[in-house]
């Protein structure tokens, strides 16, 4: 076949393809290839015809042969692109991306419009594959090409906005280059907007601020962008709220941060971030009650704020609200998002605070939970303070040997650590080794003199060491007072002071004040509440006693606050108010059905009311629970006597007298019963009896 015939065959193949006679076209092409096996056009036409005949493998092979022969010719690459675009196979996407890249290279110096069309297709392909870096690079290059081609500001603005849309669904966990290209797109989109101010421009700014707020290392850019937006839109709260949340999350409380909190609250007194910020300010100023109030209110409005919950837990810890602090720590942990390095540090702080709160609750179940929290902290084994906490948790759980091992190791490796000496002190104190405990707490105080707990425990050590040290003002009282001065929210130390003033100094008035303070700080402290009531009664101040009891019983749920119900019930008994006494003493019995004293008091109330049968049941129950309660047995006999059951009463009186021969009320009752039996016999003429 001559050169002329080859050209004629190729022309015939082209005509056949135009007429959709693809098999005929293949014949002409094969004839050409017999003569010229490296004929570029013949291979391209075979590819095109085979593709139309749905023979993709043959088409692909033909196009591949063509591009090998002429790698810088467009036709074969265009054919490959069309073939891969129509393919339903997912594994061709990588090949298609390579073809688009080659087409871009070929179009770059020529047809800019076609270059842009292919670029659009390639970006879409990368976006489907979630290759965001490649998306960012290609779209940025497309914008540069459009800019060089003389695109106007409006078109460029739309292109920057499109770039934001392509990348915005992957703001977090991006590589730095993609991140920076996205931020560049935001800056250009904001600056190229025609109408300023406008809703579109404001929304773009909002999205920009939101994007920056998710990038911890872009603090300066975030501040600048928020400042710029506030300058343009001074009545819009959003940038100020984001900035305040940034300060809260990062733990930054400079004058600038405090000014932002104040400014936000001026704009909107109900703003969650603003209220949380003011709560943190109160915490810094040691106004813990105000801090708890503000943080709680702020978190009701914006609950997904782990730092807010953490600061609330810290304020609650300062007020020794340990159970509430644990709940706040749990909320903080729950609201933490995917952990980055900064979040991991925050998580460790929350877990440590949770462990500290659980240790203060001081029971075995809380100790186990504290150990679990400490185990979740990264590198906890290398932190001596955390090891000391673990030792305290072991001690609370009753694992004294494990606690002692940690204490010994810490004292060897960190002899200047106050927590190590304190742990040793707690261990000695739990074993009643008070002389050793004294030395340990003294060592802890030497290293950390401002810790109230160490002074309190040194005072308690002296209290239990001996009568001499208990009465020594320079020891017991001095350290209790020091602890109270260092921590005015430490309710237990005020109870200790109450014990000292009542039992040692004999100052009932001052003791009552201390117990009252302790109970105000910790409403669950029954010892302090009960002592405050008892001393009020002794001092003739029934109003104060009733005030305390009323406050407790109003808040008490069913089955709780036995001491308060019992005390108030006894007060009503003494003041001849049996109906109220019965109600309160029934509540006391519900709180502790196995307390014989409560049953005895309830029986007395029923008796005062004239309810003999229920009184009898109550006294019987009391004597069953505690057979040593002679008074309950006596009252049982007395009721039997009142009911005229003299024989039963005589048996009960005799039961008492077998144990207590000289119990005068029983002797008197027994005589009366015999007398009544004799009188009954005379009335019936049974003289012989």
From TrEMBL:
GO terms for cellular component: Ski complex. TPR repeats lie at residues 40-73, 418-451, 596-629. Pfam families: TPR_16, TPR_19, TPR_8. Residues 3-39 form a coiled coil. GO terms for biological process: RNA catabolic process. It comes from the Eukaryota. Keywords: Coiled coil, Repeat, TPR repeat. This is TTC37 protein. It comes from Nothoprocta ornata.
């Amino acid at each position: 076949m001559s050169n002329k015939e080859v050209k004629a065959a190729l022309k015939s193949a082209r005509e056949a393809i135009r007429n959709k006679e693809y098999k005929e076209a293949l014949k002409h092409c094969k004839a050409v290839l017999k003569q010229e096996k490296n004929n570029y056009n013949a291979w391209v036409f075979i590819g095109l015809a085979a593709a139309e005949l749905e023979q993709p493998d043959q088409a692909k092979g033909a196009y591949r042969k063509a591009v090998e022969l002429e790698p810088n010719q467009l036709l074969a690459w265009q054919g490959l692109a069309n073939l891969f675009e129509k393919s339903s196979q997912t594994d061709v996407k990588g090949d298609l991306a390579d073809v688009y890249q080659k087409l871009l290279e070929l179009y770059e110096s020529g047809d800019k419009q076609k270059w842009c069309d292919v670029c659009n297709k390639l970006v879409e392909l990368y976006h489907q594959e979630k290759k965001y870096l490649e998306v960012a690079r290609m779209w940025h290059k497309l914008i540069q090409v459009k800019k060089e081609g003389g695109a106007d500001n409006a078109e460029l603005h739309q292109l920057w906005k499109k770039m934001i849309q392509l990348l915005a669904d992957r703001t977090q966990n991006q590589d730095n280059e993609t991140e920076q290209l996205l931020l560049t797109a935001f800056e250009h989109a904001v600056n190229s907007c025609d109408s300023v101010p406008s809703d579109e421009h404001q929304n773009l700014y909002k999205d920009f601020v939101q994007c920056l707020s998710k990038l911890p290392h872009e603090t300066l850019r975030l501040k600048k962008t928020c400042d710029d937006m506030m300058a343009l839109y001074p009545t819009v709260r959003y940038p100020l709220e984001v900035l305040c949340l940034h300060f809260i999350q990062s733990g930054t409380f400079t004058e600038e941060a405090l000014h932002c909190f104040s400014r936000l609250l001026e704009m909107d007194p109900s703003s969650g971030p603003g209220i949380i910020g003011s709560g943190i300010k109160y915490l810094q100023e040691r106004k813990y009650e105000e801090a708890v109030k503000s943080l709680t209110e702020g978190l009701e409005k914006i609950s997904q704020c782990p730092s807010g919950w953490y600061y609330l837990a810290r304020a609650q810890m300062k007020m020794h609200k340990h159970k509430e602090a644990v709940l706040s720590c749990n909320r903080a942990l729950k609201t933490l998002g995917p952990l980055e390095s900064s979040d991991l540090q925050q998580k460790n702080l929350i877990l440590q605070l949770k462990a500290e709160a659980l240790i203060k609750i001081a029971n075995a179940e809380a100790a186990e939970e504290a150990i679990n929290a400490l185990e979740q902290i990264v590198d906890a084994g290398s932190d001596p303070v955390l090891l000391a906490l673990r030792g305290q948790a072991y001690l609370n759980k009753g694992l004294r040997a494990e606690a002692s091992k940690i204490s010994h190791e810490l004292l060897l490796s960190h002899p200047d650590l106050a927590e190590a000496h304190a742990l040793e002190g707690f261990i000695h104190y739990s074993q009643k080794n008070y002389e050793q405990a004294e030395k340990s707490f003294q060592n802890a105080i030497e290293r950390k003199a401002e810790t109230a707990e160490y002074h309190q425990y040194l005072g308690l050590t002296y209290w239990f060491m001996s009568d001499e040290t208990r009465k020594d003002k320079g020891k017991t009282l001095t350290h209790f007072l020091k602890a109270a001065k260092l921590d005015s929210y430490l309710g237990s130390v005020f109870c200790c002071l109450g014990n000292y003033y009542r039992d040692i100094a004999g100052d009932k008035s001052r003791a009552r004040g201390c117990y009252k303070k302790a109970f105000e700080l910790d409403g669950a402290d029954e010892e302090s509440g009960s002592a405050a009531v008892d001393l009020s009664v002794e001092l003739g101040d029934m109003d104060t006693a009733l005030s305390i009891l009323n406050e407790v019983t109003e808040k008490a749920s069913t089955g709780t606050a036995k001491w308060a119900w019992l005390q108030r019930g006894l007060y009503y008994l003494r003041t001849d108010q049996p109906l109220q006494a019965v109600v309160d003493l029934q509540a006391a019995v519900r709180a502790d059905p196995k307390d014989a004293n409560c049953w005895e008091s309830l029986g007395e109330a029923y008796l005062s009311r004239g309810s003999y049968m229920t009184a009898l049941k109550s006294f019987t129950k009391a004597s069953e629970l505690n057979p040593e309660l002679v008074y309950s047995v006596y009252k049982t006999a007395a009721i039997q006597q009142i009911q005229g059951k003299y024989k039963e009463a005589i048996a009960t009186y005799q039961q008492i007298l077998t144990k207590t021969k000289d119990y005068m009320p029983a002797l008197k009752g027994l005589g009366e019963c015999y007398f009544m039996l004799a009188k009954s016999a005379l009335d019936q003429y049974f003289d012989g009896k």
